[in-house]
Amino acid sequence: MQESQDANLASRTAVQPQHLSPTLEPPTIEFAWWERIRVGKLILFMLSLFLFTLAITLMKDGARSLTPLLQSTFSINNAANCLGFGWLFAYLIMSGSPVAAASLAFFDAGVIGKLGAFAMINGSRLGASFIVLFIGFIYVLRGRDRSTSLSMGLLSLAVTVTTYLPAFFLGAVILQTGRLDKMQLRTGALLHSVIDQVIDPLAALVTNLLPDWLVFCTGLGIVWLSFSLFDKCLPQMTIKESQVGWMSRLVYRPVIMFMLGALITMISMSVSLSLSILVPLSARGFVRRENIVPYIMGANITTFIDTLLAAVLLRNPPAFTIVFVEMLSISIVSLLILAIIYQKYRLAMLDFVTWVTANNRNLVIFMAVIFALPIILMLI
After folding, report:
1. What pLDDT is recorded for position 342?
2. Taking a C-beta distance cutoff of 8 angstroms, is the pair 261, 295 a contact?
3. Is residue 83 within 8 Å of 119, Cβ to Cβ?
4. How far is CA 338 from CA 257, 298, 334, in A?
5. Spatial contact of 311 and 322, defined as CB atoms under 8 Å apart
6. Is residue 303 helix, strand or coil?
């Protein structure tokens, strides 16, 4: 019996080292994260950042030449005009970020005042949400259900308008008090060196070759190109059926959706991109429109990250204050809605979307209003 037990013990001890041998462990686990880095995307990111910096410099240099055009042809001489101009401008180029950057360039050049720049940036965000509705129309043309495809764009517009307009009046009051003028973010020595040694000589070359008005237009085109390149740097979003379970648990929590919208927009630096992904997700049934309101609110706050960077690049302290007040005012309004009247607000937004998509007449009325409002503001 003792010999049998000794034999079994010897057998176990002989097998155990082989089972625990480290040579059987996958040797690539420690370095697997390197495989996720793509050199091409890194180069695109650096290129997009370089082009963005160059574009801001060009727009700053060429903005002064547009003073007669804005003040006489378009009659941009008050906050209402600036709000309508930024709104229509964003419609025209299907993006709000370049318009917001242009607003700061106009302010830096003295074309518009502090309140005018604040209003024009607000208008750019109102117009930027139209891209989501436009994508919804494309889905309708492809044979998708109209209500499902258009609901995300309609919600985006409705939430943006009902939060940004109160935030505009709140932010205007804060700007007038001057309490936050000392809130500044200084550019570092390295950034100054890059701008002085690389960007400024290149911008000077373009300025010497082109008329001032074309310099601004070139900068506007380059900033639009930089955002397009940055979008290509982002990882492709794929959703598997196995992920629907945990996603469905998250979308029912307003706070989680609020933070998710803020995070995705902060990473992508494009509210159009972060909101546009809602259209295919809704069409595929992964998210429902009643859970999206907090997501849109969060996205509308961190969408100012790129504009904040533009203010820093301009080296204009009041420009930074304008963008900071934008973020603060929209944050206050959104958080108050979430904390006090979220359920009633959500139902009101959903009822509005249901009314617009109920028939063609209501949809035509809505489209007429969103195009007529900025035009009316420009005529005030």
Report:
1. 92
2. yes
3. yes
4. 11, 11, 6
5. yes
6. coil
* Residue 333 C-alpha from the chain's centroid: 18
Q: Which two tokens stand for residue 37?
A: 């880095």
Angle between helices 317-340 and 97-108 (to 10 degrees): 140
CA separation for the pair 171, 177 (Å, rounded): 10
Contact indicator for 377, 87 with CB cutoff of 8 Å: yes
Q: How many CA atoms lie within 13 A of 326 on its CB side?
A: 30
Tokens in use for 96?
């709000």
Q: Which is more confident, 156 or 48? A: 156
How many CB atoms sit inside 10 A of residue 266's CB? 17
- Distance of alpha carbon 3 from alpha carbon 358, whole angstroms: 87
Nearest alpha-carbon partner for 124 in 91, 168, 78: 91
* Percent of the residues in the chain that have a pLDDT greater than 90, as a whole number: 17
Is the predicted pLDDT of residue 357 greater than 90, yes or no? no
- pTM for the model stands at 0.73
Q: Give me the amino acid identity at 364.
A: V
**Burial grade of 332 (CB within 10 A; 0-12, 13-18, 19 or more):** middle
AA identity, residue 62: G
Contact 282, 141 (CB under 8 A): no
Q: Per-residue pLDDT tens for 212-263? A: 778 878 888 887 787 677 667 655 544 444 444 445 555 567 788 888 888 8
346 half-sphere exposure, CB direction, 13 A CA radius: 18
